[in-house]
Amino acid sequence: MQILIYDNLNENEKKEVLKRPAIKAKDEIAKIVSSIIKEVQEKGDEALIEQALKFDKSEISHIKITQEEITRASNRLTKDLQEAILVAYENIKKFHQAQIPKTIALETTKGVKCEVLTRPIERVGLYIPGGLAPLFSTSLMLAIPAKIAGCEKIVLASPAKIHDAVLFCARLCGVDEVYQMGGAGAVAAFAYGTQSVLKVDKIFGPGNAFVTEAKRQVSADINGAAIDMQAGPSEVLVIADDLADEEFVASDLLSQAEHGADSQVILVCLSENFAKKVSEAVQKQLELLPRKELASKSLSHSRIIIAKDLNQALEISNAYAPEHLIIQTQNPRALLEGVKHAGSVFLGEYSPESMGDYASGTNHVLPTYGLTKTHSSLGLADFSKRMSVQELSKEGFLALGKSVEILAAAECLDAHKNAVSLRLKSLK
Fold first, then answer.
1. Which residues form the catalytic set?
2. Are 257 and 233 a contacting pair, CB within 8 Å?
3. For each successive 10 residues of the chain (428 residues), what is the average pLDDT?
4. What is the pLDDT of residue 132?
5. Strand order through the sheet with 153-158
6. Sign of CA dihedral 392, 397, 400, 405
7. Cα–Cα distances in Å, from 45 out to 114, 153, 342?
8. 3-state secondary structure string, the chain?
9. What is the C-alpha separation between 295 and 280, in angstroms, rounded?
10. What's the confidence (pLDDT) of residue 223?
C-alpha cells in the first residue's frame, strides 16, 4: 500500500489522495441498463428468464419461488449456520425495534393542535446480490426493518439460483414473495411489475454498477419506484494510533478490500513505523485469502496516510466521509464527538467491521462514495414516511386568522386569504 505523509501534500494532492476510484464506463453502463429495463417493460417474465441465462448462466422456467422450494432450501442449511443466523436476527431485530418512532402531538397556539404520524410504505422490494458472494446477511438487514415498520407487502429478489441461506432468511423474516432474478432486470421488474413480480413503491439493497445505475434510472421515472440510496463501491477508513494491533488493523483493511476490485481502504495512522508494520501485515494476510486477486486490485488504489496527530486524523476522515469508520486508538470514544461524516462507526480493537456486517444489530446497508455527508445508514425510518396533521378549534382559528390573512395577502394569494376571511366573517 502507498504510504503518504499528509502534511507533505499540497491542497490539490490532499484532494487526489482522498479520491475514490472512478466508476468505469458510466455512459456505456447507462445504455446497457436502459435496454435491459426496456426489455423487462416489454416482455416481462420472458425477459427475466432470458436474462437469467445470459447474465447468471442459470436456466430457469419460472420467476416466483414456491413455498415448497423455500422449505427444502431451508432444510438443507446446516444447524450451525441456522443458529448463527438466528443470533444475528435477534440482535438486528432488537436494534431496529428500538427505532420505532413516537407520535408527536402538541399545541403550538391555544386551540391549534399539530401532530406528526408515521405510516409504513405499502410495498417494498428487497434486492440481495448473489454474484461474487451470496449476501444472505443483507436479507436480514432489509427484511427485518421492513417487517417491524409494518410494510403490507415485502418481496425479495436475488439472482438465480438463489442461495439456500437467502431463502432461509426470507422465510425467517416473513417475506411475502421471493423471485429468482438479478441485476438491472430485477430492479426494472420491481419498478414496473411483470406477470409474476409485484410492482413496488420503493426498492432497497446494494448491487453492482448495473444495479446501481438501474436504481438511478427507475427512481428518475415518475412511473418507476423510489430507492433507498445511490450507493457506490464499498469502502473503509481506519484511524489507528501507534499502540493499535497492526494485525487487527490489517485484517480490517482486507475485510473490506475483498468485496471487489473497485472497493477502497484507507488507513490513517500517526507514524511511518506503524504504517510499514501494517503494510507488511496486509501482504502476509493477503497471501492466505481465497479472494486474493480481488483484494489486490482494491489495494492498488488504497493507501496509508500519516497524520501529525489524532485531530488531523479526524480531519482527514471527515474530508473523506467513509462508509465504514474504524477507530483503533487508546480512547476511541473520545474521538466520536469529532466524527462528522460516517455511515457506521466501529470503536475499539474488538469492534471489527465484520460485527456490524453480520450480527451486532446495526444495519450494514450504508451510503458510500462520500454520500455520508448527506445520507444516513439504513434504518427503520427508510421503510416509512411521515405525515403532519393539524386541527384548529374556533379559538385556535381566531387566534391565527388575522396573521394568516396578512401573510396570504403579502404573497398575493387571494384565494388563500379568502379561505380564512370567509370563516372569520362567519364567526362574527
1. 323-324
2. no
3. 95 94 82 98 98 95 97 97 98 98 96 98 96 86 98 97 96 98 97 98 94 96 96 92 98 93 94 98 96 92 96 98 98 98 98 97 95 96 97 98 98 98 96
4. 66
5. 177-180, 153-158, 123-127, 202-204, 226-227
6. positive
7. 47, 20, 40
8. CEEEEHHHCCHHHHHHHCCCCCCCCHHHHHHHHHHHHHHHHHHCHHHHHHHHHHHHCCCCCCCECCHHHHHHHHHHCCHHHHHHHHHHHHHHHHHHHCCCCCCEEEEEECCEEEEEEEEECCEEEEECCCCCCCCHHHHHHHHHHHHHHCCCEEEEEECCCCCHHHHHHHHHHCCCEEEECCHHHHHHHHHHCCCCCCCCCEEECCCCHHHHHHHHHHHCCCCCCEECCCCCCCEEEEEECCCCCHHHHHHHHHHHHCCCCCCEEEEEECCHHHHHHHHHHHHHHHCCCCCHHHHHHHHHCCEEEECCCHHHHHHHHHHHCCCEEEEECCCCHHHHCCCCCCCEEEECCCCCHHHHHHCCCCCCCCCCCCHHHCCCCCCHHHHEEEEEEEEECHHHHHHHHHHHHHHHHHCCCHHHHHHHHHHHHHCC
9. 15
10. 97
Listed residue (322, 308, 368, 318) closest to 338, CA to CA: 318
Q: Are 171 and 70 in contact (CB under 8 A)?
A: yes
CA atoms within 13 A on the CB side of 153: 14
pTM for the predicted model, two decimal places? 0.95
Q: Looking at the DSSP assignment, which residues form a beta bridge with residue 106?
A: 114
pLDDT, residue 233, reads 87
Q: What is the rounded CA–CA span in Å between residue 302 and residue 265? A: 5
Angstrom distance (rounded) from CA 192 to CA 177: 16
Cell numbers at 22, concatenated: 472512478
For 78, the grid coordinates are 446446516
